[in-house]
Amino acid sequence: MTTLTRQDLNFGQVVADILCEFLEVAIHLILYVREVYPSGIFQKRKKYSVPVQMSCHPELNQYIQDTLHCVKPLIEKNDAEKVVVVIMDKEHHPVERFVFEISQPTLLSISSDTLLSHVEQLLRAFILKISVCDAVLNSNPPGCSFTVLVHTRDAATRNMEKVQVIKDFPWIVADEQEVHMQEPRLIPLKTMTSDIVKMQLYVEERAHKT
Amino acid sequence: MSRDGWMKKKANAGGDNGWAERGGYMAAKVSKLDEQFKLDAPREKQKEGACSSIFTGVSIYVNGYTEPSADELRRLMMLHGGQFHVYYSRSKTTHIIANNLPNSKIQELKGEKVIKPEWITDSVKAGHLLPYLQYQLYAKQKGPLFPGVTLRQTSETAGPSHGPLQPSIHPPQRSALNHEPPSPSFNSIPPYPSHSRPSQGNVQPQSIQQSSAARFINPQSSHTDPRHRSPLHTYVPSNPHPNLLQQQQQRAGQQQPQINSSCSRSRSGCKEAELKINGLLQTSPDMLSLSKTTEMQEDPLPLTNGHTHLVNGALNPEELSPVTDKPSVDRDKSSEEEPQSPAGRSQTKPDPYEFPHSPPKQSEQRLPPPPPTYQEALKATESHALLKQLRPPCQVNSNPEQTSPLRLNGGHHSFSSDSTAKLDPPTEKSSSSSSSSSSSSSKSSAQLLAQTGGLISEYYSHSRLHQISTWRTGFSEYVNELHSKRKAAGATSFPGKERLRKSVAQQSADSRAVCLSVCSGTCASVKSCILHVDMDCFFVSVGIRHQPELKGKPVAVTSNRGEGRVARRAGANPQLELQYYQRRHTHPQPEKADEDLYRTPSQESPESHPNGVDQDASALSMAEIASCSYEARQAGVRNGMFFGKAKQLCPSLQSVPYDFEAYKEVALTMYETLAGYTHDIEALSCDEVLIDGSALLAELGVSPDDLAKAIRADIKEKTKCCASVGMGSNILLARLATRKAKPEGQYFLKSEEVDDFIRDLPVTSLPGVGPVMGRKLAAMGVRSCGDLQQVSLSQLQKKFGPRTGQTLFRFCRGLDDRPVRYEKERKSVSAEMNYNIRFSRVDEAECFLTNLSMEVQKRLQEAGLRGRRVTLKVMVRKVGAPLEPAKYGGHGICDNLARTVMLAQSTDSGQLIAAAVIKLFHTMKLQVQDLRGIGIMVQLLEGNHSVQQDSTGSRTRSIKEMLLNKSLNTRSSNTDAADNGTRQEKSSSTAAPHPPSTPEPVPGTSRDQQASRRTPKHSRARLNLSIEVPSPSQVDRSVLEALPAELREQVEQSWTNRSHRRSPSPQPRSLKTRPTTPPCPPTSAPALYTPPVGTLVLQIPNQPDSPGIVLELPNFSQVDPDVFAALPKELQEELKSAYNRVTNVQPQAKMSVEQKNPLLQLKQSGVGLGRVKRRYKRKNAASPVKRSSPVKRRHAAISPAKTLPSPVKSREPMNIIKTENNPSTSASKPDVPETLSKFIPRPAPALAGACDLTDIKTLLREWVTTITEPMEEDILQVVKYCTDLIDDKDLEKLDLIIKYMKRLMQQSVESVWSMAFDFILDNVQVVVQQAYGSTLKVA
Does the model's ipTM exceed the 0.85 cut? Predict the structure, then answer.
């Protein structure tokens, strides 16, 4: 059993890669399930051995990719506490928040080859949960948009300003309006604890959506 | 006695210089001036160009003519970053600037820094802040500075910092002069004894400092009132002079170091802090005596005192606000006790907290009778508000009669210690010396009390209504007493009953037929009969009982007399407020009324001025009417109305002053009268009583009406006041009947009439249905009880919650199964203050919250209760409402806000409450300036009696608390919230309660069976190694200080990095430290040491297969290398050697353990017998949560722990096992031992050992299905588990479990279960809310 510490560059990258890949799938799926975009722009693909929906709108895809590209260094350094997909109504008030709360397990280890398949199983569970989450959520008002927020740990924001991963795609501090939700209700969807990452997904939903 | 002299002084100095007086107006003005200053400063700086910040933190006040002028000084302060105060504030002004001062002012300014203006000019020239010492106007002013310094020093555990004596700096005679009061008792003492024993100050720094701190408070007293000196004199001979002398010496001896440090300190520039503390100390004696008097409200004398105190304290909250934090003072206290001789300890010294309740009889007897000025004093305080605005503030306290009771009380205090000394003639010598120290210590802790709670105590001693409300408790106690007396004495006489019996017999002799019918009627129809006795407009009838000419006239009890008009005050807009209140009354919808605040006054103009009184010159009196006669009620006057308004409604309205004495007297008479009939009495208030007359009626064979008649006649005769009696088969009906009975009547609501009667009643007449619920019901279309009967139970429960819904459902049918309770259970304990709250800074508010929390703590402790839910209620000035309310010091128009937080554990600690409340306060984000009222309420109370009460109060008292405590700590410190986060490795020796000579192992972890199951050959249990360090606030300082330095460091370190440390391994470190540890004093050891021994023992009979004990080390690979590296060298080595030794198993050792166990068991079960029983009971109560089945154990062992199949074990010598075993957390946490036994850094949250969802579900199902009524502790366990899940960020599991429980519990037939679920859910939601800012959606 090899025990790798947080400082291991390799390790952080592995985690970040896995997570960003997953997040991309998840975001697409959320957009589809929550009907932020018309279902016509989505295509059925296969990921983690389950069907998922992926947008084929190039600009949207680019946006998601860029965003995640910027998230990745944060995850690598374990600076990202939460990655939040916010669905906002026409007035740009959030109606739903899909919160991926990421933390590192207390005992980090990449022990064996079972790792990847194990993690994949866990991530698949997430995906499946997302695809059925409309059962527990109230439907959204029409005309929604979305945005991605990252809650960073400590002083990570300062470093972020220095290192811009993609030119002309900087992080900005979220508006209070985008962050604050009235009477949020919390619906836990899935929690996973693996050797490399501990992540839980919950949805915060505005009590009165319309 | 001498102290009394100081106190008197204080009262004068504090009050009549007038500087202390600062009501709302002055505060407003001062803050305005400050703002002007701030605005002007940059402008001035611009003009001048040259500016600096030399005087940062310096606030000056210019007194009299100065050279340069005050204006010039102001300009200089602006330029150089200082503050300039137009009005002197003891707490804020740091320096007084004056060229010369008249003698009277010198007297006033004792204790303050009076400095020549050259200091400022020279400092500006020099470009930096010069020490002000050489610029002091009067060098001897330094003397009184000592108290401030003293306090600081003691709080820093003054030791080496004292330095050598330097008498040259301050000529001793000068300082002695300062402290020599003209009191005759002191005159008889050699003037300068200090020189004879100058070293004493250094020998006993702590106690001396205390005594000096206490005594220096008011250095220059002058006995102006001979009347109150006289009782003192009688005590002079009884108190041996050596004692006094010694005290004097101590003081004198202490002066030197103080002077020393005061100089160095002032040079180092801590002036502000010094001064603040100084000012504080000066006011504290007032509060001290006051806080005592508040406790004695039942007594006429303290009552007067309390009122008087207002003059000194309540009106200048600014002065009181800078309170030193309690812990430090606490430490003072404990450390101060240290050096005292055992004789001094054994002496029964007056506990400052206890004292007010049980003043020694002797002293009470010797006290002069309460001055007959009660009425006057009352009047004086009532009109005090007026007084204050009309007169310059300095005159307020000039009335000697007002101050006199205060002094009296101070004397009273010192008497008590004297009298204890006298009580003990054989030990005269030791006690005489100890009495001085004990009195000083009681003084110091009383100071503490005064500093923290004084302001609030003042308020409560002053608040009339509060007093009345406290009476109820008093009467309840009275009833209780009756009961206990009856039990003790066997048969008691019921004079009333006997009389009634006789009259019945008489009657029966007269007409047998009538009696027969009565008897049969009673027996048949009245099964149970509750009588509700209510005095008719109590205050009024008491007020006019000796004024027959007022009978039949409209009379109101209020503080205002005369025309109902008062002079107008600046800034107030009574009209607006009046309108607001009116609208509040007329429009029941407050939300709407709120928005109307801005409506112009002319629109409604409610004041019709019939007699053309000029509205501008005088405003309507805002004095509220406490009670009014029925005649007045007919005219539309209502209780609670403002007197001015009432006077308009009913011009002939007469006002009667409050007469608390009479109320008390009458109420007591009434209770006595009723107690003459039966003891089945429930005290509702001072004028309202419930009587369970069932037994009485059955015994006497009279009808309820006859009984009521007799009672009413009796009351009328004895009190000259009328009472109404309502009767019914239950409490509700009795109360409702009283409504009909009033005034001066009686009504028996027969059960056959109930339906008709109740159907037409408005819902609001039901108890518990207030305006809010009334409105809610009205919105449902429910107005009468008949309407309410149509609503289904489920609907009501849905709308109002399960309990309220059910109550409503029953009430509207006239059903009420509440018994008449002689002992009332308290639902909440609260302290509120909405008078004279004007803060200017946040820290003032925080300080006030702390004080108020201490008041709550006091009340909780008095009631012997502890609560979990803390509510902060705040009144905030409504936007647009006038800054200054019409009623002086009142709250005006306010928004009422409330925030609630659930503590993780029941508490009666003011500190914890304060912390929670201050947090709440900050989250509310209010303007402190707009605060008008603050209240703290504690709910979800539980009694203290169930758990062991210990003297310090800060210790954790039970296992459960230990558990909960931890989670509290975790959360409050915002650390990594996992269970283990708080569990600290720490040397266990600090906690070992037994002398090291008894090296018996404690079978602490025998419960943990994993090891024994895996290696059945050697049945052994695993040792839990992690030890919890209690949070700093819970640790007895003295114990900590008594520890060797390294241990102390460890403990302190563990506090600092609580979140990072984990327990990686057994704690061999204790091996090293153990021998060096002195045996802790048994009294204080438990502060650090928590496991109640008894709990451990129990495990053995339960699991007989594992009697042995083995110390187990975790697998080496599981040891966190970081933590290992962080361990001290020798520990590392020991650990290593331990790992090396693992292979050498020593069977003998095991044998010896096993042999010793039975012995141990006996011994230990003796220690904690009570608890063992309790645990046993609970276990046997078949609560599956606690039961651990093998299945679960296996799961727990295998699942996340990743323990290797063959864990390595080691043997240590027996004594090690003992020392380590004893304080292990398994003892403190026997309910979830499995979580602890895993040596992974962060065990998964587990419920009774189960981690896996299916196991937990099984557990829960078993729990819910097999038990009809859940134990509270089990529920708390579940809550704890849920909280752990949240902390562990496993919301999914939480969600599943909550949903599962919801299904289980709500389906259960027992409604208790659904309540239990509600409780769990509520708690979980609170935690989720805290962690995530949102609540779980539970479909």
Answer: no
